[in-house]
Amino acid sequence: MRFMTVTSLGECPYDSPLTHYVSDEVLVPAGIEWTRGQVPLDLQLFEKAGPRAKLYFDPKQVRAGIVTCGGLCPGLNNVIRSLVYGLHHQYGVKEVLGFRDGYRGLDPQRGEEPIPLTLDLVDDIHEEGGTILGTSRGPVDTKTAVDNLIRLEIDALFTVGGDGTQRGAKSLYEEAMRREYPLAVVGVPKTIDNDVHFVARTFGFSTAVEAAREVIANAHTEAHSVHNGVSVVKLMGRHAGFIAATATVASQDVNFCLIPESPFVLNGDGGFLAALQRRLVARRHAVIVVAEGAGQDLIPGETGAVDASGNAKLEDIGKFLCDEITKCFKAQELEVVVRYFDPSYQIRSRPANSDDAVLCDRFARGAVHAAMAGKTGMIVGLLHGELVHVPIGLPVQSRKEVKMDGDLWHGVLACTGQPAQFA
Amino acid sequence: MRFMTVTSLGECPYDSPLTHYVSDEVLVPAGIEWTRGQVPLDLQLFEKAGPRAKLYFDPKQVRAGIVTCGGLCPGLNNVIRSLVYGLHHQYGVKEVLGFRDGYRGLDPQRGEEPIPLTLDLVDDIHEEGGTILGTSRGPVDTKTAVDNLIRLEIDALFTVGGDGTQRGAKSLYEEAMRREYPLAVVGVPKTIDNDVHFVARTFGFSTAVEAAREVIANAHTEAHSVHNGVSVVKLMGRHAGFIAATATVASQDVNFCLIPESPFVLNGDGGFLAALQRRLVARRHAVIVVAEGAGQDLIPGETGAVDASGNAKLEDIGKFLCDEITKCFKAQELEVVVRYFDPSYQIRSRPANSDDAVLCDRFARGAVHAAMAGKTGMIVGLLHGELVHVPIGLPVQSRKEVKMDGDLWHGVLACTGQPAQFA
Amino acid sequence: MRFMTVTSLGECPYDSPLTHYVSDEVLVPAGIEWTRGQVPLDLQLFEKAGPRAKLYFDPKQVRAGIVTCGGLCPGLNNVIRSLVYGLHHQYGVKEVLGFRDGYRGLDPQRGEEPIPLTLDLVDDIHEEGGTILGTSRGPVDTKTAVDNLIRLEIDALFTVGGDGTQRGAKSLYEEAMRREYPLAVVGVPKTIDNDVHFVARTFGFSTAVEAAREVIANAHTEAHSVHNGVSVVKLMGRHAGFIAATATVASQDVNFCLIPESPFVLNGDGGFLAALQRRLVARRHAVIVVAEGAGQDLIPGETGAVDASGNAKLEDIGKFLCDEITKCFKAQELEVVVRYFDPSYQIRSRPANSDDAVLCDRFARGAVHAAMAGKTGMIVGLLHGELVHVPIGLPVQSRKEVKMDGDLWHGVLACTGQPAQFA
Amino acid sequence: MRFMTVTSLGECPYDSPLTHYVSDEVLVPAGIEWTRGQVPLDLQLFEKAGPRAKLYFDPKQVRAGIVTCGGLCPGLNNVIRSLVYGLHHQYGVKEVLGFRDGYRGLDPQRGEEPIPLTLDLVDDIHEEGGTILGTSRGPVDTKTAVDNLIRLEIDALFTVGGDGTQRGAKSLYEEAMRREYPLAVVGVPKTIDNDVHFVARTFGFSTAVEAAREVIANAHTEAHSVHNGVSVVKLMGRHAGFIAATATVASQDVNFCLIPESPFVLNGDGGFLAALQRRLVARRHAVIVVAEGAGQDLIPGETGAVDASGNAKLEDIGKFLCDEITKCFKAQELEVVVRYFDPSYQIRSRPANSDDAVLCDRFARGAVHAAMAGKTGMIVGLLHGELVHVPIGLPVQSRKEVKMDGDLWHGVLACTGQPAQFA
Fold first, then answer.
1. Helix segments in D86-204, DSSP class H
2. Among B259, C204, D181, D265, who pairs with D176 as Cys (CB 3.0-4.6 Å)?
3. Hey, is B310 helix, strand or coil?
4. DSSP labels, A163-213
5. CA distances from B188 to A88, B85, B171, B197 (A)
């Protein structure tokens, strides 16, 4: 057994104002497949999240901070609101500051002043997409940020963001530890791509899939209404094709689903273009869904450029596919009508649907409980439906991917009828 | 360890046409909370669902049947479609019959002839609510039905329905066993209330919550726009308040959430009406969500009547609450404007949202794999995100309920601010 | 020619700050059907609405008031917002007061204090249904209200409401005239039923039809999924069946549409029940849409009671129909499954769709222009796409109805296939 | 008075099976603004559409054809369905052929065979976007098409399409006249841009505006959630900015609306970029809506290329604006985050909303009545809410535009706060 215990700031001298608790002794395993006759002995076990009986902080004295980073994702405002409500109503925390525009707002030189997050201010924000705090890409100087957090007397900092954000959060709590300043840094993982280990489903993912399915329906209508109509829909998914694959299964109207986990070739008998041609001959139209990170190896001139978050700048695989399809069929004098759909900004700016709203509320309450108990250097994870505490260091070592032998990908193959591989 | 092995029709002489398999030796535990330092030794373990390497039936010879029973639920057509597609495309099954109007359709005297379910017929049905097969409440005479199934040479029967339906399915496969007729009876659990054990989430539930949230938003607007506006929203939930509780957390606009698991009293200082009055004095409006099965003990003249499915006929708790509220505040000369919302038919007739569409597809493919491998007397379950085989007898012994000390109910208490109990 | 000139408060000494104007000499006729060879000579002609070059009030000195009355209707907040924006941005009016909870708010004894409507306060309100001012039914004592308006130094009062509201508005301006207090009373007609003369389309109507169509789709699914399913949908329409008829044409899934303008009988060969039976025998299911004011003569025990607005309390025709259908077919041993849909509160509490949002904005800007020019005792009307000034006295003399020989009703007959009359 | 009489095929010997009629003597004027004291004497007057008492064709012998051309538009399937239903149910026409893939389908050498449009086939098509007949751009050889129509014994051809389509329709009926073949050619005008004279609102426009408003909401969220966020939304509108302007008023969240009717300059103090900069300094974010045909004069390298329909290929003004904005602020070291939204395919492929569904039904029934009465060389128009017959030659002489001194544009200026001109 491997116990994935998270760091604690220290003793917990204060009684919780709540009436129910989860003990640190309750654990949830990462793996749940048993083989008949064998007791699994090498499981990773994580602390179950939830309120603790004893607190590290005196809630009445706590000043908390919240920061949202990176690209938009449905549910950011829900998380902000439930953090504020959880702190106020469940623990009696009076002061919550919202840092502006991502990590930039932790640096008083670069960002605007943080704003006090009152109950009134956050009352209706969960009905809207985006983040009322604003967001940005890119890191902050760790020393400057910790100086500022100490100056502002922040006890607990909630970092809502992706892996870059949580790496930054790790640096912040380590720097605070070094200075012996007791700072609880608790991350709420945010990735619309749903590619974080130990987080079965990230918030915003369900909303994104629903929105993607609507666009696929449009794409299907366009392709279906002309002779040899081909619609190409590019969806989010830099390293993992969860949105593309899940929306494909939800829609059942997709004929080809291309994701980063399953490399493909364009040309040759087993290639994608030949398969597309067979489809058009048989059925007169085709819908192609492609994750933005798929097929990057096919595009000449990849530059290695990175954005402010340090993510590699991707070539536009959707546009590339449209061009290749047009070129290929022109060469064969097969008339096609190619339409390109690139709806990412429309998808990620939506308000959270109910599934995500509930998830955001759970994550936020779990994060509040953890911080009040003095947990730090952790994110809230989700294993098999249970919230858990995950040390920040763990999940960033690799990314969760669509398994080629799992139920999701088999669902894709079943409903598209596409070959297991284009090779 | 307790192995929840399902019945098999016998040896599996045929090779599967698929290329990936799950072994019968892979198991999933029902419980996943460990206590630090202890290996859990008394877990219920279920076979993981999925394609098997060897089949009981020769797929080319198989004739399958599908029946949908009970009240409408988003996703019924998705299940039908994915069953047909899974049988056809994955196994090459050529004949699938759709029985009409629930169990009535298994009796040739009472029902219409079954219809052949072709790929063309089911192509677009997942975009619509309801069930193209029709449905009804109530049982069928077991002997008559089995006579008919044998006459029609049905090898595999997929029963889509609630606990009454699955009890009926159990009788069918037992009767077939008695006659030594190899009939695979595989159930797909259907309950919009989400109250089946070993099924973490039933299809249609997510769609129902989303639809309920929209009605709650309307109810909030109505209550908010008049002086002392009180909106009462009755939602599905005969024995379990999952829809009411989850929609409450998703909405965050509810002030009181009443479910069957948490009995309440109306009168007295700690009662519901006094709490409502305090709310109105403080905030001028209130939104109440009540599950249909809540507070049945409060309504005089409960009759013990049952419907065709054998379910107790419930008194209308929503209407009752409206009347009691009106009466109570009239007596106190407090002017209130009470509005009643009863949207159940509007909710359950919707098409499935993406989360449910994916779930329906998974359940249906899991059911097809199980039937082809000769599993019978089982339903497809869902534990911690994994599909499993559940013997039909198990889940019907009791119902899943909202746990009073669980995360969902704590989420409700946090966002409504209502007391843990009205007593 | 009959010129429907509205009352003016007097000379207009101030220059408008705007740059475009409509002259009082531009008129729009009520009737636009010409007969070949004849110039129509007896038309009612209305002033076209729009900004005037000269103003009665000095905008910088104006204090305006807004009140919303009666039942909810999509778009109320849009009207409030565009009134405030139009007054502020287009004319520089600094003070706008919002009276609370309908006419009750005009009486300082009965209502709460009015609230200052700032740009910030109204910024996002158009995205929500309901009215931020609150509403109520029933009149206010005219003298008390005018005392209060004079005390508050209100120059222009915008009354958003139905015919009762506008009758009240007429009394207010007449009382103010009597006292020689220059009060511009300009009404924005509000009736979700769309039954006001000289207003081709009232705001909220389009949204209501869209929402009604969705419920009809649900009702169709329910009816279609069981043997002899009958869905009854009751829609708004006390005196006029515009919503029922328009939603029927939009949906194309309705088999019977019953409205107040077309009385019907239940029994006998030509009656509604016999027609329903023929439909069920032929097609196994039926969808019935009924306007709330239809068939009132059929319901025994009509009481003559009225609500706070003076509207006759209607019997529940939907419930009555369900009971009669159940009774009738039970007597004939024809099994039917009857479902009742009563979605009015869900419909009227929605936010405005785009068509209504645009209409609200137009009405509000038209009302502002009229008030600044000193027009009073009028409502803003809409003739053939053009906004006009309508003296308050005119439209309340009768109600607009669905014409039995017009395009809308013929559309209903064409898509339902129902007989022109049940008799 | 100018009577815009449409061509008739000749005497009408047959009695209509309907029971209500509109006389050819009933006319509707194009203009409805009167000046006080003057009877307008130079009006264009159009025949009111509707059923005629006498028919040119014997309905039982009629064979009709339908063709849909050009880009997708919400409501095409509604029009097809209501044409088929109107012909069948109202007149007893038994045979309706659907030509495939636009005008190409009129040429047996180039297109697929037409399909018989039965009631069953069209039953549910109005719930889906696109066109079940397929569509294409570009003309057909007139002689070939008329040969084919005569060969197929088509009596009435319904051409659903834009101005190019209707010009083609004119050629078809003229060629048929030349050959003395009595062919009723009746057009249903289709332009999502809403830019056809004598058609107050084209079908699909309302749906497009609603969809555009949703994208604007997304764009607003994106812009609002980052520092100096600028969202650019390109909407349909080659020659007229109706969609852009109407969606701007509906949304109220747009800061700049650019349409073809209002040329603008980018640079200089009065230019667009300076105004944008002022907005960003004041408010930190901006939403720009631009019609695709706006600002074409600003883009270097305009090529004069045309598409298959003969429409000039437009440069991508949205992309161009994004580039210019980025360049401009980079030069000034003002950090901005520019996002581009190009949702046209997602908008036009939607199913019709209720307003459009009703309009499609009206247009289709009006077209059927006209054809049966032997009208030809006409389109169905809409003046002030009344359907009229419009000779095909008329509307194609110019395009309807957003009037700079009209209510719509003033609504845009009021809600954006943008200057009347960027110059």
1. 91, 119-122, 142-151, 163-178
2. D181
3. coil
4. HHHHHHHHHHHHHHHHTT---EEEEEE--TT---TTBSS-TTHHHHHHHHH
5. 44, 16, 16, 13
Give the C-alpha separation, C42 to C28, whole Å: 13
Contact A346, D340 (CB under 8 A): no
- In the block, tokens 């106020």 appear at A88
Q: Report the residue from D20, D81, D385 with minimal CB separation from C410.
A: D20
Alpha helical stretches, state H, B92-241: 119-122, 142-151, 163-178, 205-224
- Residue B265: count other Cβ atoms within 10 Å of its Cβ: 16
pLDDT of residue C43 exceeding 90, the answer is no
Query: Catalytic annotation on D123?
Result: no
Q: Is A420 within 8 Å of chain B by CB?
A: yes
User: Which residues in chain A touch residue B384, judged by CB atoms under 8 angstroms apart?
Assistant: 32, 384-385
pLDDT in tens, D360-411: 999 999 999 999 999 999 999 999 999 999 999 886 567 899 999 999 999 9
- The low-confidence residues of chain A, meaning pLDDT below 50, are none
pLDDT computed for residue B396 by the predictor: 54
**How far from the centroid of its chain's Cα atoms is residue D225's Cα?**
35
Give residue C345's Cα distance to chain centre.
15
Task: Find, among A163, A4, A158, A179, the residue nearest to A83 by Cα.
Answer: A158
Contact between B221 and C342 using a beta-carbon 8 Å cutoff:
no
Rounded to a whole number of angstroms, the distance from the CA of A386 to the nearest CA of chain D is: 31
Q: What is the ipTM of this complex?
A: 0.95
Q: Give the SS3 label for residue A226.
A: strand
Chain B residue with minimum CA distance to A23:
B35
Q: Compute φ and ψ for C81, nearest 5 degrees.
A: -60, -45
The DSSP secondary structure of A41-99, one letter per residue, reads -S-EEEEBPS--SEESS-GGG-EEEEEE-SS--TTHHHHHHHHHHIIIIIH---EEEE-
> Is there a contact between A6 and A56 (Cβ–Cβ < 8 Å)?
no
Of all helices (H) and strands (E), which one includes residue A341?
strand A337-341
Beta-carbon pairs below 8 A across chains B and C: 80
Beta strands in D83-228 (DSSP E): 95-98, 115-116, 156-161, 184-189
What domains does chain D contain, in order, with CATH numbers? 2-202+352-392 (3.40.50.450), 205-349+405-416 (3.40.50.460)
Residue D194 tokens read as: 């809403």
Q: Can you tell me the distance from the alpha carbon of A195 to that of A399, in angstroms, rounded to the nearest whole number?
A: 6
Residue D246 is encoded by which pair of tokens? 């109407």
Phi and psi angles of residue B44, each rounded to the nearest 5 degrees, phi first: -80, 130
Q: How far apart are CA B126 and CA A91, in angstroms?
A: 46
| DSSP summary character for residue A36 | T
The mean pLDDT value of chain D amounts to 95
Q: Work out the angle at residue D30's Cα, subtended by the Cα atoms of residues D25 and D35, and round it to the nearest 5 degrees.
A: 110
Between CA D246 and CA D206 the distance in angstroms is 9
Can you read off the two tokens belonging to residue C288? Answer: 């019935």
| Number of other residues whose CB lies within 10 A of the CB of residue C360 | 30
- One-character DSSP codes across A357-413: HHHHHHHHHHHHHHHHTTEESEEEEEETTEEEEEETTTGGGS-----TTSHHHHHHH
Rounded distance between C-alpha atoms, residue D276 and residue D318, angstroms: 15
Structure tokens at D385: 């809410």
pLDDT tens-digit readout, D303-329: 667 777 677 788 999 999 999 999 999
pLDDT for residue A397: 61
| R_g of chain B computed on alpha carbons | 23
Q: What subunits make at least 3 CB pairs under 8 angstroms with B?
A: A, C
Q: If we measure between CA atoms, which residue out of D338, D340, D336 comes closest to residue D316? A: D340
Give every CB contact of residue D315 below 8 A, 6+ residues apart in sequence: D296, D299, D301, D302
